[in-house]
Design brief:
The complex is a heterodimer of chains A (525) and B (252). Chain A is an alpha+beta fold and 525 residues long. Chain A has a seven-stranded antiparallel sheet, sandwiched between helices. Chain A contains 16 helices and 20 strands. In chain A, a hairpin with a 5-residue loop joins strand 11 and strand 12. By secondary structure, chain B is α/β, with parallel strands linked by helices. Chain B has one domain: HUPs (Rossmann fold, 3-Layer(aba) Sandwich), CATH 3.40.50.620. Chain B contains six helices and twelve strands. In chain B, strands 9-8-7-10-6-1-4-5-12 form a nine-stranded mixed sheet, with helices on both faces. A two-stranded antiparallel sheet of chain B has the order 2-3. In chain B, strand 8 and strand 9 form a beta hairpin. Chain B is globular, with a radius of gyration of 22 Å. Classes of the chains: A alpha+beta (525), B alpha/beta (252). Strand 17 of chain A pairs antiparallel with strand 11 of chain B. Chain A: InterPro entries: FAD-bd_oxidored_4_C (IPR004113), FAD-bd_PCMH (IPR016166), FAD-bd_PCMH-like_sf (IPR036318), FAD-bd_PCMH_sub1 (IPR016167), FAD-bd_PCMH_sub2 (IPR016169), FAD-linked_Oxase-like_C (IPR016164), FAD-oxidored/transferase_4 (IPR051264), Oxid_FAD_bind_N (IPR006094). Chain A: Keywords: FAD, Flavoprotein, Oxidoreductase.
């Protein structure tokens, strides 16, 4: 077990841990792969030694606290059991590990309110937690913060079948919401590889992007209302179900993407698009990145309103997936092409969409933009395309350690950073690039057999500086969490950050909500 | 040698089926339809046989309404040389009638091999292949998990998946083979082949032109969903368990 030295959370030099952790791992596919328990070796995360001392103003848990929690939410939902705690203390990648002694499972907004009111008065730090699938260490404790997991709040409150407005509790799993909506003829406006485990409250709190972003846009657009519990226990009811409501400052936007640092989202009201019956998928091979770019521009014009996903991956990512995942085969087995593109269309007329897609692809092939490609003939084949794209994340942890970077970059330069890192790291690491090309969002994954200080020093801050220089974002959709809390200045101006700090201090004066994350520590010491 | 492959258009196997409110059948409007998975495997096997040089032409055939041509286009896009669409009206045609139609087509096309999927996933009949073999008096290798052709001896060696294991039989050609899941993994339809498929021929015929009379001697009275699974119950003591086993489940 990693035991933090008194007062400090030391990110130690790499050493093999002697214990293995059972971590419930989300698997990036639909129902077949849900909730497989996965053995992960606990490794301490090597880094240039950043020392995050435990904030001494936070109280330490005592038995009175535990009795009080038991009295509000019941014995069954106050967890001190070591096994369950160890799972809740570690993030999905096995990269960040806290040392919380207490996991709480409230069943209602009232219970969350009482918990926070108490924690605020006692100055007990807390971590709001949902599906724990975040990739920047934002969903697990840094020290001994109390974990408040919303998993039991998983009810659908209401569904307006005419307008497609869904109101549900924050602990609803995204895939379950999708299944519920599909029965009614609707779908969630977002979709991501973690859908089998991630919860809508977490999606909203991190402003998750995902695979349908190109079609349905950001949660800032699709979320109509929120119910949020503030640090002092106040239940803020902004749970509107209206499309248009220009009455005052639209505060829900503050909480969308605030990663649990301004309040805990307990209910979500979201606009869901109708389920359109015709879906088509194409898996294509391109010679170089420029072809991918031109293909994207062409797709936006030729496919227009039916385009619903445009993803790309390089040959290294394809190779990774084919080597490390079971039951996966390349749709284009003839050779390993340099780049692959996955296009999805979603419309209301099967033959019309298919004709459009075929015409566009055949034209692109004649123009030399596509070397080869396949169009799926049934749902099974479509799923197999997505299995490859969504499986990259799952496959990336199999080599040992993975450094993930989620960057927004101008289309022209998007792949350059991948090639630069590959040259920079050479034999020391495997570098792959893939992502939501349609949104200008690159996922850069650098994999080694173990987390290593030296490798990290080669990566950071180079990647951030490079991104900043090209006016990109150091975190397109993953958020800042713990990983990039001190790097916010690469993408936001000092005045903006100062105002964020002021807001944080206004809404959470004791700083108990998800401390040490999102904003630079220097503002809070 | 020519290989004739029969394919069927069915509800896509990944779709969640729903029964129509009037219980007359399964909901098929606005539902994704695709080629029957076993038919895909059959077509893939035929294409491999042609690629190995043992056959010169793969002909796909489908019996059904106008939309069948979509399925035949898929077959052509996968690599079939030409297709035949037997238009038999909008109502589904039952296995015996399909078998009679296939027999008539075989007599026209004279293939050395007729390959079908072992069953369709909408009716699960598992009858057409066996019936047409009987009507033609041809040998049959059903539930094939491996097919090896010996062109010189005009013989097909077929591994069949049976309850007791794998049975290997030898069939003199011409013969009927029905395919099982483990025979092969069907290929995807590539863009170059999709392009070529646009110029391939789909010939439309009617059962009358083949001198086949379709008569249905089966009437579907009602289609209902299976009873919903009841949730499990967590009991709090051994006594309660015994009580439930005795009085509710009635197994003690």
């Amino acid at each position: 077990m990693l035991i933090p030295l008194s007062g400090s959370y030391l990110k130690l030099k790499p050493r093999r841990e002697c214990c293995t952790l059972q971590v419930p791992v989300w698997a990036p596919q639909t129902s077949k792969y849900l909730n497989r328990i996965y053995m992960v070796q606990s490794r301490s995360f090597g880094s240039s030694a950043i020392n995050i001392p435990r904030n001494p103003s936070f109280a330490k848990l005592n038995s009175d606290d535990i009795s009080y929690f038991r009295s509000i939410i019941g014995d069954k939902n106050v967890i001190e059991d070591e096994d369950r705690l160890s799972a809740a203390n570690v993030d999905w990648m096995g990269k960040y590990k806290g040392s919380s002694q207490l996991l709480l499972l409230p069943k209602s907004s009232e219970e969350v309110s009482k918990i926070l009111h108490y924690c605020n008065s006692r100055k007990l730090a807390v971590v709001p937690q949902g599906g724990n699938t975040g990739l920047v260490g934002g969903s697990v404790p840094v020290h001994d913060e109390v974990i408040i997991n919303l998993g039991l709040m998983d009810k659908v409150v209401s569904f307006d079948k005419i307008n497609g407005i869904l109101v549900c509790e924050a602990g609803c799993i995204l895939e379950n919401l999708n299944s519920f909506l599909e029965n009614e003829g609707f779908i969630m406006p977002l979709d991501l590889g973690a859908k089998g485990s991630c919860q809508i409250g977490g999606n909203v709190s991190t402003n998750a992007g995902g695979l349908r972003f190109i079609r349905y846009g950001s949660l800032h657009g699709t979320v109509l209302g929120l119910e949020v519990v503030l640090a002092n226990g106040t239940v803020l009811d902004m749970l509107g179900t209206l499309r248009k409501n220009n009455t005052g400052y639209d505060l829900k936007h503050l909480f969308i993407g605030s990663e649990g640092s301004l309040g805990i989202v307990t209910k979500v009201s979201i606009l869901t698009p109708p389920k359109l019956i015709s879906t088509n998928h194409a898996f294509l091979a391109c010679q170089d990145f420029i072809s991918c770019q031109k293909l994207l521009l062409g797709a936006k014009r030729a496919l227009g309103e039916v385009l619903s996903a445009f993803e790309f991956m390089d040959s290294h990512a394809m190779d990774l997936v084919l080597s490390h995942l079971d039951g996966v085969r390349s749709p284009l087995p003839a050779s390993l092409y340099n780049f692959y593109v996955l296009i999805e269309t979603n419309g209301s007329d099967e033959s019309y969409d298919k004709t459009k897609l075929e015409a566009f692809l055949l034209r692109s092939m004649e123009e030399g933009l596509i070397l080869d490609g396949v169009i799926s003939q049934d749902i099974n084949q479509s799923s197999s395309f997505w299995r490859i794209r969504e499986g990259i994340s799952e496959a990336s942890v199999k080599l040992g350690a993975v450094y993930k970077y989620d960057l927004s970059l101008p289309l022209n330069n998007l792949y350059d950073i991948v090639e630069e890192m590959r040259a920079r790291l050479g034999e020391a690491a495997k570098v792959i690039g893939y992502g939501h090309l349609g949104d200008g969002n690159l996922h850069l994954n650098i994999m080694t057999s173990r987390y290593d200080d030296d490798v990290l020093a080669q990566i950071e801050p180079y990647v951030y500086e490079w991104t900043s220089k090209h006016k990109g974002s150091i975190s397109a959709e993953h958020g800042l969490g713990l990983m990039k809390a001190n790097e916010i200045h690469y993408s936001k101006s000092p005045e903006t950050v100062q105002l964020m700090v002021d807001m944080k201090k206004l809404l959470d004066p004791n700083g108990i909500l998800n401390p040490y994350k999102v904003l630079p520590q220097s503002f809070f010491n | 040698m020519k290989v004739l492959v029969a394919v069927k258009r069915v509800v896509d196997y990944a779709v969640k089926i729903r029964v129509k409110a009037d219980k007359s059948g399964v909901e098929t409007t606005n539902v994704k339809m695709s080629m029957n998975p076993f038919c895909e495997i059959a077509l893939e096997e035929a294409l491999r046989i042609r690629e190995s040089g043992a056959a010169s032409e793969v002909v796909a055939v489908s019996v059904g309404p106008d939309q069948c041509t979509d399925t035949l286009r898929t077959a052509l896009a996968m690599g079939a040389d030409r297709a035949v669409h037997v238009y038999a009206g909008a109502t589904p045609v039952l296995p015996l009638s399909v078998a009679k139609i296939l027999k008539a087509l075989v007599q026209v096309e004279q293939p050395g091999l007729l390959i079908l999927g072992k069953q369709a996933i909408d009716d699960d009949c598992n009858q057409t292949g066996q019936m047409v073999a009987g009507l033609l008096r041809w040998p049959q290798g059903t539930f094939a998990s491996k097919v090896v052709l010996d062109k010189a001896k005009n013989v097909a060696t077929v591994d069949r998946e049976v309850d007791g294991g794998i049975e290997t039989i030898s069939l003199d050609l011409p013969a009927v083979i029905t395919t099982d899941l483990r025979l092969n993994q069907p290929r995807y339809a590539t863009l170059p082949n999709i392009m070529k498929a646009k110029s391939k021929v789909i010939k439309k015929v009617t059962p009358a032109e083949l001198n086949v009379e379709i008569k249905s001697d089966m009437e579907t009275i009602q289609v209902t969903e299976p009873p919903k699974r009841k949730a499990g119950v967590i009991v709090s003591s051994v006594d309660e368990l015994i009580d439930k086993l005795k009085n509710e489940a009635r197994v003690l």
